[in-house]
Amino acid sequence: MTQLAETPEPPYYAVIFASIKIEEDQGYAETSARMIELAKKQPGFIGMDSARVDVGVTVSYWQDLASIKQWKQNAEHQVAQAFGREQWYSRYKIRIAKVELEYGN
Amino acid sequence: MTQLAETPEPPYYAVIFASIKIEEDQGYAETSARMIELAKKQPGFIGMDSARVDVGVTVSYWQDLASIKQWKQNAEHQVAQAFGREQWYSRYKIRIAKVELEYGN
């Protein structure tokens, strides 16, 4: 079932990853799935909301900046980052943001 | 052409809107398009990245909290918000976050 991320009371952090993929994205789906699986095991990981049509928008939620830094430096993730930069994305933008307020249902 | 939002040097603000839509979303597409058109005319609006499959993730970027508040209170937008809450979204979550760092290509 499709669900939205469950997050605690702010403050916590969001990594906003927006990207445009090229057509021949060999290995992308497998690596993408693997990175999600791996991120979920990282300390400080809270949750994630993600969608892709042409533009992909993935927002992951983290306890603090240290958790984000640790995930960025994960060895397997670094290999995936290099593939992303060099092969899969024609453009991408990453924004680190401190969530101050949250509401919804 | 599909493009990503162009944003200035941080700090600025992001509104992260994650939602799940119900099946019968009468009037949704028109109102959604109209709200995007209207948001672009608001003071402080910077840009937006958006995608929807099952989950929709829309991140809009704003100069400051005052701009976000003003947009939230826009009369036409308030009608759309009510439709969203009462008719279109089975779940939604809005997070207001201060962008501290940005990188990409």
From TrEMBL, chains A, B:
Highest taxon listed in the record's lineage: Bacteria
Pfam families for this protein: ABM
Keyword Translocase: no
InterPro entries found in the cross-reference section: ABM_dom (IPR007138), Dimeric_a/b-barrel (IPR011008), Jasmonate_Hydroxylase-like (IPR052936)
Organism: Sessilibacter corallicola
Protein name: Antibiotic biosynthesis monooxygenase
GO molecular function, one term: monooxygenase activity
Start and end residues of each ABM domain: 11-82
Alphabetized UniProt keyword annotations: Monooxygenase, Oxidoreductase
PANTHER family documented for this protein: ABM DOMAIN-CONTAINING PROTEIN, BLL5343 PROTEIN
